[in-house]
Amino acid sequence: SSQVPREQGLDNSLNLLKEGYLYIPNRCRRFQSDIFETRLMGQKAICISGEEAARVFYDTDLFQRQGATPKRVQKTLFGQNGIQSMDGEAHKHRKKLFMSLMTKQRLKVLTDITVEQWQASALEWEKKEDVILIDEARKIMCRVACKWAGVPLKESEVEQRASDLGDMIDAFGAIGPRHQRGRRARLRSEAWTRQIIREIRSGKLKPSAETAAHAMAFHLDLNGKRLDTQIAAVELLNILRPIVAIARFIAFGAVAIHQHPEMRSKVASNQGNYRQMFVQEIRRFYPFGPFTGAKVKKDFTWRQHPFNKGTLVLLDIYGTNHHPNIWERPEEFRPERFQGWEGSPFNFIPQGGGEYDMGHRCAGEWVTIDIMNSSLAFMTKYIDYEVPAQDLSINMARMPAMPKSGFVLSNVRLNTTNS
Ligand code: HEM
After folding, report:
1. Where would I find the beta strands (DSSP E) of 338-419?
2. Which residue from 151, 220, 297, 375 puts its CA 20 to 30 A from 5's CA?
3. Is residue 1 part of a domain?
């Protein structure tokens, strides 16, 4: 029989909730193994970590997504029957739709909108004593996402839409009220984007042809048919929601600048492409996506361990980004590690691994990097602020994590020497 370590217990879901991002890495360390077996959510699960694990996980002959995502995650974070749960040719066709939105020109439009929205918001912050960055960044990202995607958004709607999009993300790994908030947010948001899709199809709204809203409304599936209104609504949210999620990385970026003040001027000047390396290190170092899941599509063996058809497998995202075989001193925040760094599609996986077109790697990785880059340029060059005493601790059991205070800025001033 298999030599693979097994965590004892009828069900270890509570341990997962207690340890969060560290659940898989803690056991890999204890078992001295990149693979172990456990029971989660009432079923057998195999957890795997590291570059070789990612390589096998993204082999689409061996794994499928259909049936892998728990209902509670579909009803909050993902939505039902969207791209995340698709496989094979249908998935590839849908992924092409998402990737067609990510051209150089469209990314340039996106970063222009991003800078414009930061500027407008910072003018308002000057009038206040302090602001909570993660909340402000969510509203900024909500405006950016809607404008870029061709979705009309009234100023009076921003607060509600931004908090709904944020609450769907915040529900991941939650039980109780935080989960319920995520469900309500999804119901309200889907009703909103269904209406947008209907109005585009009826000609009442006319977003330009390059936008996500237009693309989702008029995309034809492999049978040559338009998407069901509900599915188009879910896919439009698969663009809007994760752009709002970037607010978390921006808050982590502010924490990093605050805790490493010597990096601030290098992020601002961007000498030697420093800002890009800083962005990569934020994505590697801070906890966001903990793991991703798939089901074994057909029996195979890896590391002498049988993977039987239908078994749930979790790939350790956080642990792979901190894996001692890949990263030197992984617990240090050190942007220079990305200087001349030769990555593979499987060893740096904050937004999933493998190829964009073939597998489930995040469609929005370039969007994330470019928006973070523009946002951190803005924060280090165009505003000055103070950081009052606050609790910046990051609770590794809370998925998704964030700095406890949300990062409070006080006394924000536009820096006129640069603008
Ligand atoms: C998939 C993370 C931003 C759109 C994913 C996956 C992860 C991820 C872990 C799943 C990978 C897998 O299961 O193999 C993140 C993080 C982000 C982010 C941490 C930071 C904010 C974005 C943005 C967009 C986006 C900005 C769109 C503009 C998507 C889509 C998928 C996806 C459409 C599904 C891809 C597929 O199933 O083929 N993301 N993402 N994400 N992401 Fe992101």
Report:
1. 383-386, 408-414
2. 297
3. no
pTM of this structure: 0.97
> Residue 8 region, left (φ>0) first, then alpha (ψ -120 to 50), else beta?
beta
Q: Which domain holds residue 380?
A: 13-414
- Give the model confidence (pLDDT) of 94-116 as tens digits: 999 999 999 999 999 999 999 99
Alpha helices, H only, 60-176: 71-73, 88-99, 104-125, 133-149, 158-170
If one residue of 141, 362, 371 were mutated to test the ligand 1 pocket, choosing by the most ligand atoms within 8 A of its CB, it would be: 362
Instruction: Please report the atom of ligand 1 found closest to the CA of residue 317.
Output: 9
Question: In whole angstroms, what separates CA 369 from the centre of its chain?
Answer: 11
- CA-57 nearest atom, ligand 1: 14
Q: How many domains does the chain have?
A: 1
Ligand 1 centre from 388 Cα, in Å? 33
246 Cα nearest atom in ligand 1: 21
98 pocket-lining for ligand 1 (C-beta < 6 Å): yes
Residue 377 lies in a domain: yes
Domain assignment of residue 4, yes or no: no
The reply to whether ligand 1 has any atom less than 6 angstroms from the CB of 245 is yes
pLDDT of the residue at 417 = 67
C-alpha of 143 from chain center: 18
Instruction: Report which protein residue has its CA nearest ligand 1's atom 41.
Output: 364
Ligand 1 atom, smallest distance to 243 CA:
26
Among 223, 212, 229, residue whose Cα is nearest residue 79: 229
Cβ 310 vs Cβ 296: under 8 Å: yes
Which phi and psi angles does 176 have, rounded to 5°?
80, -145
pLDDT digits (tens, 9 = 90+) for 147-198: 999 999 999 999 999 999 999 999 999 989 999 999 999 999 999 999 999 9
Choose among 346, 321, 355: nearest CA to 52. 346
- DSSP at 1: -
Confirm or reject: Cβ of 364 under 6 Å from ligand 1. yes
Does residue 318 sit within a domain? yes
CATH number, domain of 164, equals: 1.10.630.10
Decide whether any atom of ligand 1 lies within 6 Å of the 243 Cβ.
yes
**Residue for token digits 């609504």?**
233
pLDDT tens digit sequence for 214-266 = 999 999 999 999 999 999 999 999 999 999 999 999 999 999 999 999 999 99
Q: Determine how β-strand 63-64 pairs with β-strand 291-296.
A: antiparallel
